[in-house]
Amino acid sequence: MESKEARKLKKEAREKERMRRPLRTSVHPTRIIAYLVQLGIAYYVHDFLRNHFMMMVMWLLLVLPVFDAITFFFLYRGISVELTAPERDVSRFSIGYLNLKLNNVSYMVSFDVNVKLDAENSFYGDSSGSILSLPCSARTSNEKQIPIKYSMNGIYKFSIKAITVRDLLGFISLKKSVDETAEVNVYPERSLAAEIDMSDMNKGMTESEESVKRGHDFSDVSDVREYIPGDKLMSIHWKLSAKRDILMVKDRVSMSDQQMVILVELSGSDEEVDEILTLSYAVVKRLVQEQTYVRLLWWSEGNFGFEERQIMSRDDLKEAFSGMYYETIYHDPEKTRGYMLSIYPELKAYVKVCMKDGQPNVLVVEQD
Question: Would you say the pTM of this structure is higher than 0.90?
Answer without folding.
Answer: no
